[in-house]
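Can't paste images in this forum, so I'm doing it all in text. The chain is below; anyone willing to post the predicted structure tokens underneath?
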Amino acid sequence: MIVSRALTIAGSAARGGAGIQADIKTFQELDVFGTSAITAIVAKNPHTGQGIFPQSVEAIEAQIHTILEDIGADAIKTGMLFTHEIIINVVKWIQRSGVKKIVVDPVMIGKIGSALLKEDAMEAMRTQLIPLATIITPNMPEASYLLDGMELNSVEDLKVAAKKLHELGPRYVLVKGGRLEGPAIDVLYDGEQFYLLEAPRFDTIHTNGAGCTYSAAITAGLAKGQAVPEAVIEAKKFISAGIRHSFGFKQGVGPTYHAAYGKYGETDCTVTIESSELSTNYDER
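Text version of the structure:
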């Protein structure tokens, strides 16, 4: 039996809805064998208030080495990396791995506003990690930070941001429009044309880990051999289903439901392809 493999290099979210927990659940739901290298543990200590516990570079390297030597990977996703030192070492390890399908989720701020990337790490992400990416998946604040504070208020702004981010070196850019008004529209750009992915906006606050899950679903698709647009379209359906059926627990923002796409499916997703010469509907309803 042959199974596709995906590695996530990211933070561990103790609440279970984001980080490597979300990634592994997503990989499993999409029939990909998932492995993880934990860069930091995200959980609040009740006595000290400390919320992020970075792992040593040696510990991260040991995890990645073990995974690649014993299991291998068809695609790699990076999530929360947190420090400059971790980023430059992850870049080195990815280059040595020979894996060509790289998804960079430039995680910077958590759902409750906690900083997940140190300020001095931004330049290393922009100049060293992002150029390795098959696709990067910033949300609107992350895209704005990467572009030195560019304001994003419309789909047209997302297109401009996608073009500018493409100049940093990734093959594809997906700018997620979750903070816009109206339908949930994301912009995928390949250097020549735009794919506008639209799904309904659901009336819920329970979207913890949505970005992690979305990028993990893209990673799973690439690991299975899907082309980037195909992987992104399925991932859009996957996360839309997860948000549609999300739930809350005792307190705070609840998680998306990772099993929802497999249990219920998702049909309310449309894709429009635009270039300088045409605009057509892509049949993905």
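Confidence is low (pLDDT under 50) at residues 276-285. The radius of gyration is 18 Å.
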